[in-house]
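hiii, so i know i said id send this last week but things got crazy w the move. better late than never?? heres the sequnce for the chain we talked about at the cafe, plus the structure i predicted for it. fair warning i was half asleep when i ran it
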Amino acid sequence: MAETDDYDAGGMFNDPEGFYDPEPEPTFAEHPMLSGQTVRVRLVGSHPLYGDLLWNAGRTSAFYIEERAQELIAGKDVLEIGAAAGVPSIVSAIKGARTTVMTDYPDPDLVDNMRYNATSSASMIPAGSKLHVDGYKWGASVEPLQACLPAGETRFDVLIMADVVYSYREHPNLIKTMQMTLKKSPEAVALVIFTPYEPWLLPRTETFFPLAENSGFKVTKMFEKLMDNVLFENDPGDEKLRRTVFGYEIRWTEEELK
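okay and structure toks below
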């Protein structure tokens, strides 16, 4: 009887060539800034966390930031949560944020892609503005993020949260992250901007805001913006809602700042 170590299956357990579809190649997207500059980013070819898309809320966040850059961003410390391709982070760095930290779920493909986009945009970022990339799971320790801040700083002036409130189960972790990272000052703000791609879940998505109010924050609705087109053409549900981007600013309450 032959020893098992000498047994040769002759490749019978190998998948035949072409058995699996090839992984989709990465694609690229461009974001035209109001300044006339263009941010070009690479998107992950395919990913369960949707890193292969440039979301309407991300684009809208980037425009919102650029329009208010002088008072909102310049010289400030900025953290983006759930950045995907990272356009709002890149725009923040270009517009003179002192520190920008671009984060998404600590998946190697997502993080590597964010690093690629940060590196590709480096020539557009002025001296004195630093752009960092890191993987971050919502609600986890923020010490790695704090390590990116200038000496003596432990919190951020601006949080960018584009299309992150869709998962109501993660609302407590998002609130926890806000509590750990938003600077305790009247000017510090979290920008929560999203589109209800599944309109029937909008009431559940909106439970994020009373939870924030019960956790020491003041919520202010800033805008509703109707986009020209839906992001997912064949999805069900109210088309107008699927084209609408909602924008909120969240700040600490006066009681929390005492």
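btw Residues 1-7, 47-51 have pLDDT under 50 and may be disordered. thought thatd interest u
miss u guys!!
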